[in-house]
Amino acid sequence: MTQARVLDVSSLPPYEISNRSPLWAGQLLMCMIEGALFVILIATYFYLRLGVDVWPPPGTRIPGTLIPTLALIPLIASCVGSWIADEGAKSNSRGKMLWGSAINLAMAGVFLALRAVEWAGLNFRWNTDAHGSIVWDMLFLHTYDVVADLLVTAVLLAIVAIGRDGPKQRIGVHVDSVLWYFLVAIWIPMYVIIYWGPRLVGAGR
Amino acid sequence: MNAFPLLLVSQSALEPGGTNASRILTLGEGMVFLLGIIFVAVMIMAVIPLMRRHRGIEQEPLERTHQPSEATERKLAIVVGSAAGATVVILLGLVAVSVVVGKSISTAGMPSHALTIEVTGNQWWWNVRYMNDDASKIIVTANELHIPVGRPVVIRGMSNDVIHSFWIPGLQGKRDLIPSRVNTEWIQADRPGNFRGQCAEFCGLQHAHMAMWVVAEPEDKFDAWFAHQGQDAVPPATEELQRGQQVFLNSACILCHHIQGTEAAGQVAPDLTHFGSRMTIAAGTLQNNKGNLAGWIADPQGIKPGTKMATVPVKSEDMQPLIDYLESLQ
Amino acid sequence: MSAVLTEIPRETKTADRDALSRVWRPRPGFTGWLSVTTHQQIGLRYIKTAFFFLLLGGVEALLMRLQLAFPNNTLLGPFRYNQIFTMHGTTMMFLFAVPMMEGVGVCLVPLMVGTRNVAFPRLNAFGYWMYLMGGIFFYSGVFTGSVTAAGWFAYTPLSGPQYSVGKGVDYWAQMITFTEISALCVAVELIVTILRMRAPGMSLNRLPLFCWSMLVQSAMIIFAMPAIVMASNFFLLNDRTIGTHLANPAEGGDPILYQHIFWFFGHPEVYIIFLPALGMVSMILEANTRRGIFGYPAVVLSLVGNGFVAFGLWVHHMFATGLPQLGEAYFTAASMMIAITSGVQIFCWIATIWTGRLRMTAAMHFVFGFLFIFVLGGMTGVMLASIPLDLQAHDTYFVVAHFHYVLIGGALFPLFGAFHHWFSKFTGRMIDERLGRISFWILFVGFNLTFFPMHLAGVNGMPRRVYTYPPEMGWQTDNLLSSIGALMIAIGGAVFIANALKSLRAGRVADADPWDSSTLEWAVPSPPPAWNFDNLPVVSSRYPLWIDPEERACVVGMRDDRREVLTTTVLDAAPHHRYVLPASSIWPFLTAVGLTIGLICAVFAFSGYWLASLLGLIGFIGWFWPPRHVEVEP
């Protein structure tokens, strides 16, 4: 045959800023990995809790609910910033990307500040006992991830600010929002378990 | 003192002397037989195509498509489907049988008992306590248990340090000894005999030398042994033995070891009250005789490197009386 | 805007090879070597490094067998022996088996799905550097006196701060951080490659079975690795270095919890090792029986089922710990049921062999060896699933026999087969078939001689992890046979290595498809160019290469002046958009160096994690910092 059958893809776009981008799929998998780790931490929490009669152990105060509940406000507000930045990435609007990331960072900062205040008031440490270890493990890992994403968002903000926001960088902004939504979402069940669980269920004091 | 044969010592699950080990062996033999047949059948099926007479896809006229005919594929589907179905049925049967046998060897399947023995694992020896509601009647020994033939015995297992595992293959499956937990299982000997066991959970340097003996004896012999174990240590009868006792009581040995009826009240090493009546030294490592005992005391690290037993210096003129004394503690 | 199948004159379709080779060649020099991001190079690095660790682990095994050849032997004392068996297990599981499978996957998957590289080339490079540095760090403990002697599974409290003094266990725990990061990187990129970068027309029901096995395996890694992070970092490393109490019963912790979490990872881990081997067997059989594997849907379902059920078995490692009976019974059922998923594949393979036209290459010998050894190991596995039997056999040489049968039979023999089968593809030379068959027989006989007697030693009462045993136990014949067998395995390995080296230098030059195979990797020259395909293929069958070359379509319209691939839809692989991959970059290497420094410091002080984070952040910035010109032309 002198003719060959071909598929001409030259009309296809050379990038895609949506959940069809490979980077988005990769980020989703990263969230699943981290999510699995959080689920194991939660399972460990319940295993340790079910092994004793009194929880938290004597001498440990249940962490207060006021500050963590207040902190939910900036946390959820920060998602709005992510959403705006995400819209900016998809519509190629530098303004939206800058403002959205800035709002996200500011609200995340407030959240972390509140968390720092809360931590100063806890009367147990990770080396106090197993309860202290698992609660601090959960708080620490979540906070570490939040700070890491905050830094990633800051770098993306800088990149957009100096004008180097091409399609690949905008895919990055789009995908970063996925990570942020995940970190907010995974906090909700942990918040309930750590602060309300001992109060609502079982032999908490 | 029971002498054990220097010939082959059995620590084998294939030579059961107890109820539970026998049940396990029967199940095991059945499974080996069944699974062995299945294995041979599968291997034969895999190997037949290698024979020259077998021509496979060449018999099909449709080789170019790299697929046999529909009819052949359908036949294969029936065969593979049936094999898969048979596998499911066989496995379900094996699950059921295993659960039934498992129940019979667990404490749920235990006849009513009269004897409870607490075994505590340490690095690298076994503390043995015959329980009694009257605390003053608890009998303490180490590395060797005696049990009456034909009566169930509950073993309450614990650990003072890392995870160990109590395992007497001739009598029962193993049970891990876990710090801060109590694990129970029951054993019952069907015939008299000496059953050797070994720690079966890696517990550090001398895991390989943490063995124990279970001596199953007829009821009357057991009762005699038991009664004697409850008594204080045999007082030294001769001057030589008294000297030996003095050597012991003046040395660091008393910091770790306990001899009932003397001032030696250490709690962190094997109880020596009736040491002379035991078959082995150092948790089954050495046969219990005077020569081995001298070697053990003189250089524990040489025999069991890493052992927690201190090397207590004993003057050469003191060694013989000391050994004679300890062996006199029947 | 969509792509349409048309016809054009044949001569106009070929891509510009000069342009492709300019774009895809690595940068020169040592920095170029550090900056490689092409999948073949990185995959081969994984394979070579993993093979080196296989040899190390083998030496450790030989030392163990020499010590155990005679009762009361004094070649190795207890401390040294305990270190060596710990290193043997750790090296084989973490530094050889998983990385080797990853390496084969990284080499083969992009070729088999018809694309040019993995989805995240720099992540691929980063994962390899982390693996290499983790392995080097772990073995550096030999020179600093920090070698763990707590077993490859490091049960607490033995591995805890009180009973394992020194940094050995800490080195072990942190090495796992390195290898688990590496495995996760490969898992993420292979999943995205398989689901989003397949050749147009390669719908999921046309995906080669090896790619299915890598897909399932990668998904398993995603969910299993976090558990070992938890066990090694949160339980062990933190308990040992910053005083947490997760495994400390005195303060509310639980050593059994460590076992649950470790085995929740540990059991899927062996299937993570095993599944790619199943995929390799399918591919080798397909090529050498000249027919498609019988029962493709059943095999795929079995692979997927295997992946799921593997997560429900872990307690069968803990039957002796005194857990409630009813719960344990469930695990007996699950552990036996997984024999079905493996069994269905074996039945399908036998059906394929029955109706195929066999060509008994060296690779096929290893496949038959796999069938024998693995099925036997599967039988002892069914026995171990039965709690009464397990309570006798657990922690004895019976288990050692079982898992070597399933791991060596189930993973290593297929790997040898894969090596002989794909050797020509990646080196351009045919491996010597006769030497390959000879090495097979030595390995097969040696393996059975080594490990079959261990079944008997185990049921006759020989526990695991013992540095010696008394002569009166009756175990010495079994042990001597095992040690002789081990020497045979070493000889077989040496013949294999000699074969590889000889064939590399003097083997017959190979063409693209010496086996008349079915899958896309055989459509490109041997070895393939760095860009794999001149024109990306279009696929219309499960067996693309069994379609007449005249009938095969290909892709045109991609740019060849940059590293460009095609993304397609998940289910039907319809073309979606073009995707520009990064070129070479030194940042994956630099990021790995930064993390390595930080993670090693963290073994000694928790603040090391801050250093790791800082250096990681710097690496991330370098990695993603955009060049001046950011627009992407169509």
Plain-language structure description:
The complex is a heterotrimer of chains A (205), B (330) and C (634). With 205 residues, chain A is mainly α. Chain A has one domain (31-47, 63-200): Four Helix Bundle (Hemerythrin (Met), subunit A) (Up-down Bundle), CATH 1.20.120.80. Chain A contains five helices and one strand; from the N terminus they run E-H-H-H-H-H. Chain A is elongated. In chain A, 36% of the residues are buried. The mean pLDDT of chain A is 93. With 330 residues, chain B is α+β, with helices and mostly antiparallel strands. Chain B folds into three domains: 19-108; 109-229, Cupredoxins -  blue copper proteins (Immunoglobulin-like, Sandwich); 239-328, Sandwich (Immunoglobulin-like), CATH 2.60.40.420. Helices cover 34% and strands 18% of the residues of chain B. In chain B, the strands form four sheets. Chain B has a five-stranded mixed β-sheet with strand order 3-2-1-5-8, with no helix packed on it. In chain B, a hairpin with a 4-residue loop joins strand 11 (280-281) and strand 12. The model of chain B is unreliable at 1-7 (pLDDT under 50). Chain C has 634 residues and is mainly alpha-helical. In chain C, 63% of the residues lie in helices and 4% in strands. Chain C has helices at residues 17-24, 29-34, 39-68, 78-113, 121-144, 168-196, 209-241, 255-289, 296-309, 325-355, 362-385, 387-393, 397-427, 433-459, 476-506, 587-604, 608-624, and strands spanning 4-9, 537-538, 553-556, 564-568, 575-580. In chain C, strands 2-3 form a two-stranded antiparallel sheet. In chain C, strands 4-5 form a two-stranded antiparallel ribbon. In chain C, helix 7 (209-241) runs antiparallel to helix 8 and helix 11 packs parallel to helix 14. The longest helix of chain C is centred in the N-terminal third of the chain and has 36 residues, at 78-113. The two termini of chain C are 13 Å apart. The model of chain C has no long low-confidence stretch (mean pLDDT 95). Chains in contact: A-C, B-C.
